[in-house]
Amino acid sequence: MRLEGKTILVTAAGQGIGRASALKCAAEGARVIATDINQETLAGLGNQAKGVETRRLDVTKPEEIAALAADLPPLDGLFNCVGYVHNGTILGLDDAAWAFCVDVNVTSMVRMCRAFLPGMLERAAATGTASIVNMSSMCSSIKGFVNRAAYGTTKAAVIGLSKSIAIDFVGKGLRCNALCPGTVDTPSLRGRIAAAPDPEQAEKDFIARQPIGRLATTDDIAPMVVYLLSDDSRFVTGQAVSVDGGVTI
Ligand code: NAD
Questions:
Q1: What's the total number of domains in the chain?
Q2: pTM score of the predicted model
Q3: Alpha-carbon gap, residue 98 to 104, rounded angstroms
Q4: For an engineered disulfide with 137, which of 45, 48, 111, 155 has Cβ 3.0 to 4.6 Å away?
Q5: Is 151 among the residues known to form the active site?
């Protein structure tokens, strides 16, 4: 098992990619701390797989992050999965919506990394390795998408953050990478499809973005999370890793 002996924290683990990744990490032998703001979706996750513990965490609340970091043992792996998709161009982006996107998509990851890094560096000193994975997107890393001004900008910042952490701690055994998925079939994507003026066409358009001819499932993405958190990726740091169904071909 590739994550045996590792303690890994996942944010936004209640549903979608975070949930699938938490389960996959546990299946690979990790002790997983699965966190989310939504206690209802977290409920049951702990019973689904041996090795998963659930903790409520709102990543926009610094005091909750500090309390959790003080309560947990040092981590070997951190998957900052949380993210929010704002719909619109820069012309419809008011300051409040912009601030919310920055807070959820970027500042949360800055705070999480800052809070858990000291413990992760301890683990890296003891074991030779520790790994952070920050969720970005093919939106920004690869190309711009219509009506994703705040989303694309904040996901680009996640790549910058990941490269900065990677270079600052590369000599200490700590690796940090950004993950850039294509379009993944998750509850929030289903919500965006349902909210479109023509949902059937919207689904076709989302599928058409991937040359591979379908949406990704969360199980298409979770193995890359496991890889980046495991020692198999010990020579991989500072990368924006695409899992995009051929968008970059
Ligand atoms: P989702 O949007 O379906 O679920 C998001 C989860 O985040 C929910 O469980 C929600 O309760 C939780 N959450 C929201 N605000 C929170 C907060 N303040 N604190 C803690 N948890 C909070 O999940 P998804 O579609 O799998 O997306 C997960 C990540 O992947 C996001 O960062 C997203 O931007 C990124 N991503 C998604 C896709 C896609 O097509 N779905 C593509 C590329 C990147």
A1: 2
A2: 0.98
A3: 10
A4: 155
A5: yes
